[in-house]
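Q: How do we represent a protein-ligand complex in a form that can be generated token by token?
A: Start from the inputs.
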Amino acid sequence: MTECCTPRPRQSEQRCAPEAQAAQQPVARPAKASCPASGDPGKPVEPITLEHLLTAQARMRLLDAPYYFCRGRSCDVVYFTASAESTFTKADLTVPVTQKDPGDSVPVCYCFGHTRASIYDEIRRTGTSTVVADITHRVQAGECACERTNPQGSCCLGNVSQAVKHGLAFFTTVAATR
Ligand SMILES: [Zn+2]
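Then emit the structure tokens for the protein with zinc ion bound:
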């Protein structure tokens, strides 16, 4: 199951580049930071992501420091600072985190509301998936807001592609054994 957590091809992230670049002022931050709970490598996230996704109570603990996202599947920590003086766990967010919650109702694409269930359902009904094309189209139309909606603070397409791959593998195997 670790393939869901592997770093994604860059081109899927670059689709959201205009928005990402607008928000990414140079911030002095250590090049690398590991999750204090799981040791997973952290992915830098911008303050705007935490400001939008933390609960009101958790937001009061937000420090003026660079934060990182932990994509560790079984780790409760979602955000942490390099020196670990500040961490936020799943309970501090207003949304479930794709990487940390295997539930079918969990969003995979936060901008346009695609869940594992909706992706699997289309594959089960039609044998194929239009979700990547749909998201790509809407991203190109400038409709995405990944930095404010997705806990990882970047484009969801890598996670969506993984869900489609899982769905296709599962449902085509089921069809073949019928
Ligand atoms: Zn972690």
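The radius of gyration is 17 Å. Residues 35, 37-38, 40, 70, 72, 75, 77 surround zinc ion (CB under 6 Å).
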